[in-house]
Amino acid sequence: MVGKYKIGFLSSNRPLQVGLFVVVVFILLPNFLNAQISRSVYFHEQLPESSIQNPAFSPSCKFYVSLPIISTLYVGFESPFAYDHLTEEWENSDSLYIDRETILDKLDDVNYFSFEVFDQLAGLGFGAGRHFFSLKVANVFSTKFAFEKDLIKFILYGNGSEDFLGKHTTLSKTGLNMTLYKEFSLGYSFQVNEKLTVGTNLKYLNGDFNVWTEKAEFKIFTDDQTNYAITASSDINIHTSSTISSFDNLIFQIGNYSKFDMTGNHGYAVDFGVKFEPNEKFKFSASVVDLGTINWTENVKNFKSANPGVEYVFEGFDVVNLISGGAIEDSIQLVDTLVNHFQLEENTNSYNSHLNPKVYLGGTWNINQKNNLGLLVRTDFVDELTKLSYTVNYTHRFGNILSISINYSLVNKTYGNFGLGIVSKLGPVQLYLLNDFAYGFTQPKSAQAYNFHFGLSFVFGTRNIKVKEESGGVGGYE
After folding, report:
1. Burial of 256 (0-12, 13-18, 19+ CB in 10 A)
2. Using alpha carbons only, how large is the chain's radius of gyration in Å?
3. What is the pLDDT of residues 260-296, one digit of tens each?
4. Distance of CA 267 to CAs 182, 214, 243, 263, 401, Å?
5. Kind and range of the H or E element at 441?
6. Domain-by-domain residue ranges, the chain?
């Protein structure tokens, strides 16, 4: 059957095809588990965490404090396809098959998995007139794994496919950027006048772990003769640094409050934001966040091609035949051959990795005192890849105690992304739970994204700023 491979999970047939695909996708997926908080929080300026996405935003309280463990936690995952896109069941059978065309239809030319954790350890802020100051300390686990559609096509169809046979193929957009770091953020917002507010976050970063693929270029040509000989070359430059002994310890370190050791990996970043309110009905805002780098000097290991661009010829085999019925020993021998030919040199030179910046453009229509309608356009920059997402938000307020919001987002070519949010304030306790992809909790096998964002702060007082305009420039405040 064209475009389908049987998976013998529930029968005796276990073709190597499935194993190879699982290695490339599912094993990579959990281990490549960037960072930013949920899109929903952008529409709740009363939350202290909204300034993470736009530093011009500030809460209406005079003072707030967020305590360890109960402060703020965001976890989010986004994928170009869901589990149900990968497998189907045969009719009248308990076995599964991989529908290759369905998988490829879901992919862009360049795609990425992302896994994000923002674990705020503590925070506080206070307002003084038109000024608002904040300080936040957080663990950030930031990961994006980019890959090309041609790579998946090569795995699914092999080099004997008409898309590769007798043709030159270049794979140069696949790579991993995974970082764990501590973030110390000093925020400041200033109300210039009744309509305009500006803000910035100045951040010191202290790195714990990093894998950065600066370059991974592979050029492949398959001979259109019957032996399927492959001519290939590579140019690889991968950087790593770790003060953590194992992956298990890496996961533990994300939420470890008792051990907060500083390292010699120093970095800096900055955010900029602006908010413009032409009248009481409308608000427009824009921000650029995570402009920064980290210099990695501790336990550095870099891997670079010893002979970049040098071509090697592998005597012919059809990858489809190999992975459909070949022995495990054949695949191991193939991997050994590739490793031996694509030799990598190792060094311990320090290097700089960059954060993945984001741009937010937002607008809000205050329909009345109880109802808001908002729009957010978010742009993610991952190396040379740019990804756009769009979110529409409706929020209803029940007095000053409770607000409930509903979101709809277009992300990764998916159109069923509804999210829910609730923000409550009982005395000084401000509690919120936000989600951009509720479908991920009700239908996990069909969802391409999951996230949740929880936070609790203690807020005190209410700021009441009235800006006084003076001729010739910005005046003071009353």
Report:
1. middle
2. 25
3. 688 999 999 999 999 999 999 999 999 999 999 999 9
4. 10, 18, 15, 11, 40
5. helix 439-442
6. 4-369
